[in-house]
Design a protein that fits this description.
It contains two helices and 27 strands. The chain is mainly β. The two termini are 19 Å apart.
Length: 360
């Protein structure tokens, strides 16, 4: 068993039709590793988020570099069975909101999709807005209406997109109360030396805000190395940004029409995605490794470790909740979410989600 539970100090081939079930946790080849259990049959489940007021978790499968195709999945937290909900045969439902997304050239063709970070914002009555970073054919934020009414498998209707500025490649995304959103520019997609720059803690991007009718702007003092995941307070006035190679989370406060940079807090891990916990803390998921070793680690000699860290926003204290050294089946966590008495970890590689017991 390669898991530790701690209470101490403080990326990166599924079913083609919507609702089609994939391999379950009980399937052959999906056995537990000690107390670590798995949900299998996914394609690089990089980002995870609970769909509010439902029993579903939305999962973003990272794009395959060769085919530029990836999937969005929904997982019932009771059955833990993944179902592909996008893309679907025939392209799926389309209802282009040209008033808001008039500059969008239209839906991605066929089953093309290159997912990365995602966010879900409630609209009421079981409807939500889903924002998804896309890298296939274009660098965009793709926008969907997500219908999770009645407990049925969620469905998606594509409503628009926003093309990112030149030299920007999105990573995390979070919706704003006014219908806009914020995304992180992780790196210039044409910069082949970007990861070497991150290893040297050189600036590779910044944090970008988009508003309907106004377009793009850059958050002041947001230039950083490997800007990654995002989290926004319920009132929309406090933003948290993950600095991946810097192993930290930086706070920004809304001041009038702009943002003001505040303090940064260390996490001890390569800080990837951020998710809210039920007690109002931030749950930080990432790789328990260093740069550039995370790219140099090669099995079977080593594995890229995983960890989840709880960040108390009142005290600034970071507490490592769980860690997993990894196995042939799973390594290099990118996202951690709270699901009942478990912590679920996603990864930028492989075909499964790891389920770890949460600290009691």
């Amino acid at each position: 068993m390669q898991i530790k539970t701690l209470m101490g100090s403080w990326f990166l081939g599924a079913a083609a039709m919507a609702g089609a079930p994939l391999a379950s946790a009980a399937s052959a080849g999906c056995e537990a590793d000690g107390s670590v259990q798995f949900i299998c049959g996914l394609g690089s489940p990089e980002d995870l988020i609970r769909i509010p007021d439902s029993d579903w978790v939305l999962v973003s499968g990272m794009a395959d570099a060769a085919t530029h195709r990836s999937e969005l999945y929904a997982i019932d937290v009771k059955t833990r069975t993944p179902k592909t909900i996008y893309p679907v045969k025939g392209g799926g439902k389309v209802n282009h909101d040209k008033k808001t997304y008039g500059a969008c050239p239209g839906p991605l063709p066929g089953e093309t999709f290159g997912a990365h970070g995602v966010d879900v914002q409630p609209k009421g009555n079981g409807l939500h807005t889903l924002y998804a970073v896309n890298h296939a054919l274009r660098e965009t934020i793709e926008v969907f209406e997500l219908d999770a009414k009645g407990g049925a498998v969620p469905t998606l209707t594509w409503v628009g997109c926003v093309v990112l500025p030149a030299k920007a490649s999105g990573n995390g995304v979070v919706g704003l109360p006014d219908g806009g959103f914020i995304t992180t520019n992780f790196k210039d997609p044409a910069d082949n030396a970007a990861f070497q720059k991150m290893s040297a803690m050189q600036i590779t991007g910044e944090v970008l805000e988009w508003k309907p009718g106004k377009g793009w702007s850059t958050l002041p003092d947001s230039a950083m190395s490997g800007a990654n995941g995002l989290a926004l307070s319920k009132d929309g006035k406090t933003l948290y940004v993950a600095g991946w190679p810097g192993k930290n989370v930086t706070r920004y406060e809304r001041s009038g029409a702009t943002w003001v940079k505040k303090e940064s807090v260390g996490t001890g891990i390569l800080t990837d995605n951020l998710r809210w916990m039920s007690d109002g803390s931030l749950l930080v998921g990432g790789q328990d490794a260093n740069m550039p070793a995370v790219f140099e680690c090669r099995a079977p000699a080593c594995r890229v470790g995983s960890a989840a860290v709880k960040l108390d926003l009142k005290t600034g204290k970071a507490t490592r909740l769980v860690e997993y050294q990894g196995s042939e089946a799973f390594e290099g966590a990118t996202t951690a979410i709270e699901v009942g008495n478990e912590i679920w970890l996603g990864s930028f590689k492989g075909s499964r989600i790891a389920r770890l017991p949460a600290p009691k």
